[in-house]
Amino acid sequence: MSLSVHSLSCARGGLQVLTGVSFAVAPGEALILRGPNGAGKTTLLRTLAGLTPPLEGHVDAPADGIAYAGHADGLKAQLSVAENLRFWSGVFGASGIDRAVDAFDLSDLLDRRASNLSAGQKRRLSLARLLVTGRPVWCLDEPTVSLDVDNVARFARAVEVHLTGGGSAIIATHIDLGLPNARSLDIGPYTRRNQPAAADEADPFLSEGAL
Amino acid sequence: MNGLLIRDLRLAIRAGGGFGLGLAFFLIVIVLMPFGIGPETGMITRIAPGILWIGALLACLLSLDRIFALDWEDGSLELLATSPLPLEAVAGIKALAHWLTTGLPLVAAAPVLAVLLNLPPQGFPWLIASLVLGTPALSAIGTFGAALTVGLKRGGLLLSLLVLPLYVPTLLFGAEAARRGADGMDAATPLALLAGITCLAAAAMPFAAAAALRVNLR
User: Fold this and answer.
1) Contact B147, B210 (CB under 8 A)
2) Other beta carbons within 10 Å of A72
C-alpha cells in the first residue's frame, strides 16, 4: 500500500506549477512537503487526490486509498458534530465514529452545531473525518491551521498512530510536527513560474474526458 | 448513498436550508396572477394550466443554484469527489433530493392553487399527473446546469440562461397535457412524451453533471 509518484507535472488554473516531481512514500512513513507560499504544495496534493489530472507522469496509489483534507473544513454548519462525522463515516462505509471522537477530544461537543464551533474546533472535527475514512494514505494541506499547541500535539499523535498502523501521510505544513518517521521534501526546485500549460490542456473543455 | 440523501434532506429543512423558498414563490406567483390579469370571466380558467406550469418551473429554477454551490463553498464537494461515491451517484442523489424538497411540494400545492385559478374539475388529475411526470426532469436538467456553473461567483444568472432553453420541451408537453385535461380532451400523448423527457433527463443528466463537476473541481 505504498504511494509513488513518477516525474509528475501539475497545473493549476491553466498554469503549469510543478514539473518532474518524483518520490515514494512507504507504509508507516510520512512525507512533509516544504516550500514557500505558491510553490505548488496544494496543487501537488490535489493532483495526488485525483481532483486535478496530472499534465505528465503518473501517480501509483492504492485504489480508493487516499483521504484528502484541503484548506476548507468541509463541514455543514447546520449539522451537529456527531451528524457531520456520521455522514462521512457512512459515505466511506466505516463502522463508527468513536475512535475519531476520542482521538480529537470531541466528546463534549458531539451535540453542538458546527456553526457554533470555534475555528480550531472546526479544524479538529475536519481532521477527525480522516479517521472515519479508514483510508491508508492521508494527503493533508496545512492541517494545523488555527490549532493551538495542545491540539497540534494531539494531531501529531493521531498521525503517529496512523503510521504505526501501516498508514502513510503526505503533509504540507510550515511547522515542525515532531513526527519520528518523517522525511521532508522541499518542492521549491520543482516549481515552474508562469509557464502556461500546453494550449489544449489549458482549456479543460477541450481536453479528453471533459465532454 | 442513503447518507447523502438524508443529509441533503436534513439540511433543506433546517434553518437556512431554503426548503420553503420555491413553494413560497409558487404561491405568490399564482395568488398574484388573477390580480394582474383582471376579473374577466373565463380568462383565468383558460390560462390556468399554463400559469401553474410556468409558476412551478420558475419556482424550481429559483432553488437550483443551491444544489452544488453550498457544498462547493464549504469544501464538501471536493471531499465527496475523493470519496468512494462516484460523482454520477452524487449528482443523481442531489437531483433526487432537489426534487423531494422542491418538486414534490410543488406537486402537492398545485391542486390547492388550481382552485384559486378556477381550473375545471376534470383538469385536476391531469395537472397533477403532468407535474408528477414533469418536475423530475426539471430537477435533473437543473442539476446539470448547477454542475456547469458551480465554480462561478453569482452563477445564478448564467445558470438560468443555460437551463431555461432546456426546460422548454418539458414546459411545452407538461402545460399541453394539463390544458388538454382541463378542456376534457385526451392528454395521453403529451403525457407520454413528457414521461419520455423525464426518463431521458434522469438517465443522462447525472453523467453530464458528473463530467461538468470534474472539470469545475480541477
Assistant:
1) yes
2) 16
State the pairing for strand pair A3-12/A56-60: antiparallel
What's the angle, vertex CA A53, arms to CA A52 and CA A54, rounded to 5? 115
Closest-CA residue of B relative to A132 is B83
Whole-angstrom distance, CA of residue B117 vs CA of residue B26 = 13
The yes-or-no verdict on residue B69 having pLDDT over 70 is: yes
Nearest chain B residue (CA) to A48: B82
Of B10, B76, B78, the CB nearest to A51: B78
Q: What is the rounded average pLDDT of the residues B101-119?
A: 91
- Name which residue leads in pLDDT, B103 or B154: B103
Domains held by chain B: number: 1
Residue B8 has pLDDT above 80, yes or no: yes
Beta bridge partners of A69: A140
Residues linked to residue A32 through DSSP beta bridges, in sequence order: A171, A184
In order, the DSSP letters of B118-152 are T--GGGHHHHHHHHHHHHHHHHHHHHHHHHHTTTS
Instruction: Determine whether the interchain pair B75/A71 forms a contact, defined as Cβ–Cβ distance below 8 Å.
Output: yes
Are B82 and A66 in contact (CB < 8 Å)?
yes
Query: Does residue B58 fall inside a structural domain?
Result: yes
Which residues form the domain of B211?
46-217
- Partners of residue B74 in chain A, C-beta under 8 Å: 72-77
pTM of the model: 0.88
**Distance of alpha carbon A209 from alpha carbon A163, whole angstroms:** 36
**Cα separation, B119 vs B131, whole angstroms:** 15
Average pLDDT value for residue range B43-66? 91
Cβ–Cβ of A76/B11 closer than 8 Å? yes
- B102 within domain boundaries: yes
Local confidence band at B88 (pLDDT 50, 70, 90 cut-offs): very high
Contact A76 B74 (CB under 8 A): yes
pLDDT band at A22 (very low <50, low <70, confident <90, very high): confident
Asked whether residue B116 is assigned to any structural domain, the reply reads yes
User: With contacts defined as CB-CB under 8 Å, which chain A residues touch B79?
Assistant: 68-70, 74, 88, 129
- Asked if residue B174 is part of any domain, the answer here is yes
Which chain A residues are within 8 Å of B73, Cβ to Cβ? Answer: 72
d(Cα A47, Cα A19) in Å, to the nearest integer? 12
